[in-house]
Amino acid sequence: MKNPILIGFMGAGKTTVGTTLAKVLGQPFYDLDDAIEKHLGQSIPSYFNEKGESAFRQVEKELLARHLSTDNVLATGGGTACQVVNQALLRADKRPVVWLQASDKTTLENLSAEDWQKRPILADKTAEDLSKLKASREVFYRKTADIIVNVDQKTPETIAEEIIDRLQNA
Ligand SMILES: Nc1ncnc2c1ncn2[C@@H]1O[C@H](COP(=O)(O)OP(=O)(O)OP(=O)(O)O)[C@@H](O)[C@H]1O
Ligand SMILES: O=C(O)C1=C[C@@H](O)[C@@H](O)[C@H](O)C1
Ligand SMILES: [Mg+2]
After folding, report:
1. Which domain holds residue 64?
2. How many domains would you assign to the chain?
3. Which ligand is nearest to the CA of 54?
4. How far is the CA of 10 from the centre of ligand 2 (A)?
5. Per the confidence metrics, is the pTM higher than 0.90?
6. Nearest of 91, 86, 92, 89 to residue 146 by alpha carbon
7. What CATH number did the domain enclosing 95 receive?
8. Could you report the per-residue pLDDT of 23-40, keeping only the tens digit for each?
C-alpha cells in the first residue's frame, strides 16, 4: 500500500489523523502547513498578513511539488487541493488521495477559538461564511480524491483504521 495524501477542509483532521495514521503504519509524517511555517520562519497568519494569500499559495505549491516525490504520509492544508495547479501535482503523484469529509457541525466543533485564529482564511468569518466556503470547495476535494472517508463522530484512531481498510481493499 502506498502512503496516502490527506485532503479536505480546515478542521477535518488532516494533521491529527495523519499523525495517527503515520504512527500506525510506522511511516514518516509530513504536514505541508508545518513545512511551510518552517520554510518561511514565521507563522502562516503572520505571512498572510505581510504578503497576502497569493504569495502563500506560491510557497504552498513549491513545497508541495518539492515534497511529492517522497513517500511520507502527507497532510495537505485546507486549500491545497482547491488550487488547479496543485490538483495536477496531486493526481500525478500516483499515491492514494483521501478526502477527509466532515459535516459543518463536526468542522465547527473541531475548530476551537485558537484553531480559528491560526487560519487566516477564517479571520472575521462567521459560521455561516465557513459553511458557504466549505460548500464551494467540495467540488475540488471530490475531483481530486480517490476515496472519501467521513470523519463525523469518529476518533482519529478509528478514522486511521478505516483509511487503511479502505486502501487495502481498494
Ligand atoms: N476525529 C477527531 N476527533 C476529535 N477532535 C478532532 C478530530 N480531528 C481533529 N480534531 C481536532 O480538531 C482540530 C483541527 O484538527 P486538524 O488541525 O487536524 O485539522 P486540519 O484538517 O489539519 O486543518 P487545516 O486544514 O487547517 O490544517 C484540532 O484541535 C484537533 O484536535
Ligand atoms: O483552507 C485554507 O485555505 C488554508 C488552510 C490551512 O491549512 C493553511 O494552509 C492556510 O491557513 C490556508
Ligand atoms: Mg492541518
Report:
1. 5-168
2. 1
3. 2
4. 7
5. yes
6. 91
7. 3.40.50.300
8. 999 999 999 999 999 999
